[in-house]
Amino acid sequence: MNLKFIREDVKQMQAYVVQNAQGMLKLDAMENPFTLPAELQQKLGERLGKVAVNRYPGKQVQELKNALASYVDLPEGYGLVLGNGSDELISLLCLASAQTGGCVLAPEPGFVMYAMSAQLQGLKYVGVPLGNEFELPQEAMLAAIKEHHPAWVYLAYPNNPSANLWDKNTIQNLIAEVSTYGGWVVMDEAYQPFSSHSWLGEIRQDPVANQQVVLMRTLSKFGLAGVRIGYLVGPNALTLEIEKIRPPYNISVLNAECALFALEHQDVFAEQAGIIRVEREKMIAHLGSLKNTKAFKSQANMVLVRFMPALDASNTQDQEILHLNALRIYEGLKSKGIMVKNVSKMHVLLTGCLRLTVGTPAENQKLLSALDELCV
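RE: above sequence
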């Protein structure tokens, strides 16, 4: 087989791998663990059965945009772009960028699609390491921004996988610097339902200071991971440009109808998010009582945990011990039918870490009981 017309950089890449969790307690992908109540399942099924699947998407998609605009209370002068999850929106932003000398910048560790989308569109990617406690390093970020003038600076708020919110003053200073040369800061609020703060409030309070800020969200963490709906909120001048390159039928009629149904019953999903937030704090408290374990504070529906935190991840010998111990606990959970995410080798700051999704109360109890046995 001849692959000479396939890009060399693509052939060198690794595909995004989804863990096989069949038959497992799935706590690896930050999904909402709750299903729809039986009554709503029946209503949704009847509603989807009436959708004109023989027609291209049209009316439902515009209705969804209107519903989301109402849901977020869209600021005046702002527009909204729909994507097939946040992944497509990230790709569209890169696609819209000037290719010659174009650059994307983000703190690390962070969402892998920032770098991947930049590479696929021929843009330079610059990653800036976070602090030891996953804090946003203002001076290092400012220095990188001044040197590279990135078109897009991604700030996940809360961050994945560290699950923390960064200092507001630091973010404001970064926005001010990026704005001086016409770049954009993308506030990625994928985990907004579980967070105590949204940057949308800052945009409303001071629209001038935030005129080069784009807000990105998804309904995946809202409770619709399988529906694949993301949305971008930004000034009309920008969203009109992004709309030009958005595939005309990127949102299916079935996905749009599911999302509309969910927004009509948003109180059900808000209640689920409330349970998850309570469970998250219980989980963090329990993890903090375990031997040789450090659970980081979280504003998302996941908890990052470092095992054997007293060891030095910058030391090669300790690093290997940390990797092996994280793998031991990961495999131990897997043997008990529990799937979590081993992030120990994703970045040096994550050495010795696992990422745990917050599940239902019963699921969390099973996870914590298993960790009680393994963390001895």
